[in-house]
Amino acid sequence: MDSIIVTGNGPLNGTIPIAGAKNACLTLMPATLLSDEPLTLTNAPRLSDIKTMSELLRSLGAEVTSMQDGQVLAMSSHTIATTKADYEIVRKMRASNLVLGPLLAREHEAVVSLPGGCAIGARPMDIHITALEALGAEIELKDGYLHAKAPGGLKGATHELRFASVGATENVVMAATLAKGTTVLKNAAREPEIVDLVHCLRKMGAQIEGEGTSTITIQGVDRLHGATHPVVTDRIELGTYMLAPAICGGEVELLGGRIDLLEAFCEKLDAAGISVEETEKGLKVARKNGRVKAVDVVTEPFPGFPTDLQAQMMALMCTAEGTAVLEEKIFENRFMHAPELMRMGASIEVQGGTATVHGVERLKGAPVMATDLRASISLILAGLAAEGETIVNRVYHLDRGYERVEEKLGALGAKIERVKS
Ligand code: EPZ
Known about the structure:
CATH topology of the largest domain: UDP-n-acetylglucosamine1-carboxyvinyl-transferase, Chain
Shape: elongated
Number of strands: 24
Mean pLDDT: 96
Number of domains: 2
CATH superfamily of the largest domain: Enolpyruvate transferase domain
Strand content: 25-35%
Bound molecules: ligand EPZ
Number of helices: 14
C-alpha cells in the first residue's frame, strides 16, 4: 500500500485545476442504463471510484470506453446482459447502489448487493427501498442482496423521504424518468450533483422540474435517448484545496472554482479570516492576515456545510486561534481523523457527534493512518503546515476521490511525494 510523505514547507502559491465531481460522475454513469443509446460524459475525474463504477457497468453488459486520459467516458448499454450487481464489486464502493433505480426502470428488475457498512457508518438503504416501493417496486432482502422487481414497470407516485438522502434522491429520480405517470418526490436532497444529474437526464429526454429544491417532479416518458454531458466541477475537491493556502499561508487560484457550489463553506472561511475572491478563471484564496480564527461548524444537507469537508475543516481548526466546535450530523462515525491529528499534536476532544478543537500554535509531523477518503486528505492538509515530516499510510483511500494530489499540491511549492510499497 502506497504512502504519501509531506513536509511542512511554508506558504503555497500558484494555481490548481479543479476536476469534475466524483459524486456527480458516480450518479451520471448509471444513467446510461436508462437508454439503449450512447451517453458520453466529458470533464470526468480520473479516480479509482470511476474505474470501479466502469467495472460494475461492464459487468451488467454496458460498454464503457475511457478516452482522453480518462476525462471522457463513452458509454452505451444497448442491451443489459444481467440485472445482478455482484457483491465483489459493490462492497468496494457504496455508490454501486445507484444502479438499482435505473435497472428497475429499464428492466423492471434488479438484484443489488447491500453495500455493507464502511468506516464512516452503517449506511443502510431503507430510504432508497421505501421510496422505490412507493413507485410500485417489490423489494426483499435475501443473502445480503436486495431482490427488486416491478412487474409491468414502475408507476409514478408522491413520496416524502424521511431524510434528504443524496443517493435515495438520485435512485428515485432516475427510476421515475421511465415510470408510468408523475412522481413528486418531497424532502429531496438539493446537492449540486443532483442538479447536474437532472440536467443530463433532461438532455436525454426526461421531463423533470424542481432540481435543487426539496420537491422534484418527474413526468415519466416511454424512453430516453443518448446525450453528451460535462460533469459539474467537484465542490469537495474545490473546498479541500481552498484550505491549502488557508492552512499554510500564500495565495492560490483554483481554476473552475465556483462560489455558488460552496456558499456555507465560504461563509465559514470568511469568518475564519480567509479571503475568497472570484476571478474570471475561478476562485483566488489567501489568508487575510495573521492566524486563522476558530469557527464553529455544523454539517447539514446542502445548502448547509458539507459533511465531506468536515475533516478538512478540522485540520484548519487545529492551528486556529481559539476553540472550534465541529458537529457531525450526517454520519455517525466521521471523526476518525481526530486521533490521527492528535498524533500530530492537535488538541481535540470527541464526544459522540461533537469534536471540540483547541487551536495550538503548530502541529508536528508524524506517521499517521488514513481511514477514509476525506480523513486522508485532511491529514495531508495538516502535514503541509506541520513542522517536519508526516507520513500518511493507506493512501488508496485518497486515490478514490482525489486525482494526482502530489502533482496538484507540488505545483504550489508543497514538499510532497508518494512512496510506492
Ligand atoms: C453521498 O452519499 C455522497 N456519496 C457522500 O460522499 C456524502 O457524504 C453523502 O452523500 C452526504 O452528502 C456519493 O454521492 C457517491 P446519504 P450517500 O444517502 O448518498 C443515512 C464522499 O466522501 N441513510 O445522503 O450514501 C446514511 O447512513 C462520500 O465522497 C440512511 O439511514 O449519503 C447517512 O448517515 C462519503 N438510509 C445519511 O443518511 C438510507 O437509505 C446521509 O446519507 C440512506 C442514507
